[in-house]
Each structure stands twice: as C-alpha cells, then as structure tokens.
Amino acid sequence: MAIAAYASLLDAVRGVRWPARGPVAAAPPGSHHSRLRGSSAEFAEYRPYRQGDDPRRIDWKLLARSDRASIRLATERAVLPTTIIIDASASLAFPEATLGKWLLAKQVAAGLASAAHASADPVGLVVVAHDGVHTLAPRTRHGVVGDMMRVLEGTAPRGTTPLAGSVRAAHDIPRIAIITDLLGDADATLAAARVHRAKGGEVHLVHVVAAEELDPPAGARLATDPEDDRVERALTDSTREGYLAAFGAWRAEQADRWTASGAQYHLASTATPADRIVRQVTDPRRVESSRTHAEGAHA
Known about the structure:
The protein is built from 10 helices and 10 strands. The chain has helices at 7-12, 60-66, 100-118, 144-153, 164-169, 186-198, 211-214, 237-260, 274-282, 290-296, and strands spanning 32-48, 70-78, 82-87, 123-129, 132-139, 175-180, 202-209, 221-224, 232-235, 264-269.
C-alpha cells in the first residue's frame, strides 16, 4: 500500500477527534479535561477566597450579593500524548494472498494517529518488527502522521515479535493503543497493560482478525502457524464447527480479560472498513459494542 492509498481513509476520518476517557493528569494546555482546577474560561465551581489567592479571580458580583469573597474555578484543558503500538509479526501477514490483517492494522494505526493529531495531541508510533522496534516519539508537528505512514510502509510482517516490552517501555505515555492479533505473547502483553492502567494510563486494545478466520472457506485445508511452521492443523468440514466454537470462545475470553484490566477492547475484522473501526475506538458510543461482536461475530 503506497502512502497515497491512505488518502481515502484520511478523508473518511477527517473531523474525527479522540477525546480522553477521563480527566487528564497535569499536562500542557490542550483539548481534554484536566484533573486540575484553574482559571480557564470554562467555569466549573466556586470556592471561598483564601489568603494568597489572586484577587483578580474574585467574583465581585457574587461578593456584592453574599458579602463573601469567592474564587471562580474552571476546568483546565490538557493534551494527551498518545503512542500507537503495532504488532508486525508473521501472523499479521494473513491471508497470504492479500495480507488483509496487516493492511487493516496499518490503516487503523494511521486513522487513530490522524484523530489524535486532529485533537492537538502529540502522537507517536512503535512498530514491533522482526528486525527490531521502530519508534517515533509523540509529536504534534505538521507531517507527523505522514512520517508514521512511511514507517508502516517500510515494514513487512514476519517473524515472532513480542509486544510486552514495548508496552512496558511506554509507561510514561498517558494513552496507548495496541494493535495486534493476540497470537504472540498475549499474556505478557496483558500484564504490562494492567500495570499501565494501574498507573492511570488509558489503554486501547485493537484485536485484528481476518474475515477468513471468522468464517473459513469450505473444504479441506491445512492450517500452518505462520510464526512456527512446525505447527499444523487440518481444517475440514468435520472439524470446522469445533474450530468456530473454540475461536469464538477464545475471542470472548480475550475481550473479558482485557476489559477486566480496565482497557478498552475493540474487535477489528478485515470485513469492517478501517474508518468505522477508527470511529469505534475514538467514540464507541457511535457503534455497536465491540464486546458484543467479540462474542457473536460469525457465531
């Protein structure tokens, strides 16, 4: 996918913003509600004047009515630095004919980056690839989304690429989005995400699955683990029902575990347009619950 191929996606998500899920800790001024109270224009509440307060913040009209000096407090605004961590392991190169999972993962990453950038938030990228971890630190400058797309286009999904270390390394980033098919070090990645949440960070898990995994074509075939070709399984008409039940139960389990950790879980099927997934992640109220999809997609 050439960078120009992202144009239709970026057009589709133009105007999409990515609001914080809750108040943001102390940070530079930005578009999200802060946990602090200050003197911005967005009124929140009054409190009694205390010695040392700036007299210019006294509400003189209220003083005239009540004979009590009160300070107007307001909701401060803050930025939310965001890092998108993307899995570039061999299992994302499925189906081999289309690389559908990898193409979707890249498009979702670009769309989320665009939404964060449009919200005036610093946005960065971590690509966990077979040849190392490629990192772009969160930035707000013009062109940062294009820089991220170029890194993605220079990466091919192959090999085994543990994600947990990159999640741990992002411990100081207030918001992270992890894009993966959960076919690698899923337990270790979840443990790292739990730590991130415990520290107050916002975590999104975008679980990429292929439509062919949800509904395999009829007929006998031999499925090979792309990250370990010694692992093979026969998928026939007689074993298909058992596979669908097991895969559905596994997806539901992953959704439960990630949701219980405090993360936002989003199922991303290659049958779903990337812009719809971006809107689901940035504002899940606009789309049917991804948790429901995880349990019932192609059940």
